[in-house]
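TA notes, week 10

Several of you asked for a full example with nothing omitted. So below is the full record: structure tokens for the whole chain, then the designed sequence directly under it. When grading your own attempts, check the secondary structure regions first.
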């Protein structure tokens, strides 16, 4: 059983070989069809390795998107939840695979520090549960430890938190008379939850464990007057329940580790959300 099975079109054989070498340098065992021993049944050998591999990397290119063989291998890997896709050119992916996070290897020449290659390695390590995520095996068998590559994403999350704070404290915020206590606006029958429920469409701008994503839906559901449940079509967002508070026309999470802010001054309202302090989402409520 191999750690990584590489699926690719015949025209991309050189790229697949380069990738196999790069992943092998990380200490992972890699299988591709060039390893089939003479006399073995071609389809049986591939099926056996495909079904037993801990992770399947599919190289999407202008050649592979038209290959039924590659698409079938990708579908089989997706069914086992072991698919880690990579794009080697700017091709549009097959419809059923477009919503998956895909590493960009379009300009990768084999260098281990390449951002797309690092992202692919992270995806492989997360899929197979391997601790070798940031290690590169040297020819003499020694290893070196590399710094985690989520630093930029974490920095982006911190910047977003600061930006939200400045927004709330800045002179452009809604003016609230001194002494006003956070809570429902006077004379308003609707609870805080009623003001923020709905479906928001937006983007994940940074992720401490992945990359940015577009066209992400986040749905806010009312549990009671001041409590909501937040869900999403993107599994990294997960499910979060929050108690709400209010400052002027800003509805915020009252506590917890998932900063939440809906700006009612905007039309339609906007949402800034940071579930578990792991990713930064910004979206606009659908009318």
């Amino acid at each position: 059983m191999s750690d990584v099975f590489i699926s690719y079109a015949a025209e991309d054989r050189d790229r697949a070989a380069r990738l196999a070498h790069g992943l092998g340098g990380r200490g992972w065992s890699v299988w591709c069809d060039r390893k089939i021993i003479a006399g073995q049944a071609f389809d049986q050998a591939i099926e056996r390795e495909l079904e037993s591999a801990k992770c399947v990397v599919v190289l999407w290119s202008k050649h592979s998107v038209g290959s039924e063989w590659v698409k079938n291998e990708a579908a089989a890997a997706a069914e086992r939840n072991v698919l880690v896709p990579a794009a080697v050119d700017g091709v549009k992916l097959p419809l059923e695979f477009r919503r998956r996070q895909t590493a960009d290897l379009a300009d990768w020449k084999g260098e281990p520090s390449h951002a797309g290659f690092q992202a692919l390695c992270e995806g492989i390590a997360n899929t197979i549960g391997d601790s070798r995520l940031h290690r590169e095996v040297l020819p003499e068998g020694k290893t070196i430890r590399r710094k985690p590559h989520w630093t930029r994403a974490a920095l982006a999350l911190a910047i977003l938190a600061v930006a939200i704070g400045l927004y709330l404290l800045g002179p452009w915020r809604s003016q609230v008379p001194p002494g006003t206590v956070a809570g429902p606006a006077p004379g308003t029958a609707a609870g805080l939850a009623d003001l923020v429920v709905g479906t928001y469409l937006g983007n994940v701008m940074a992720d401490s464990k992945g990359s940015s994503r577009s066209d992400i839906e986040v749905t806010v559901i009312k549990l009671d007057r001041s409590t909501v449940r937040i869900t999403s079509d993107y599994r990294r967002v997960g499910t979060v329940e929050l108690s709400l508070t209010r400052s002027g026309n800003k509805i915020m999470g009252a506590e917890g580790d998932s900063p939440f802010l809906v700006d009612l001054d905007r039309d339609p309202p906007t949402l800034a959300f940071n579930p578990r302090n792991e990713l930064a989402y910004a979206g606009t409520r659908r009318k």
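The chain has a mean pLDDT of 79. Use that as a sanity check on your answer.
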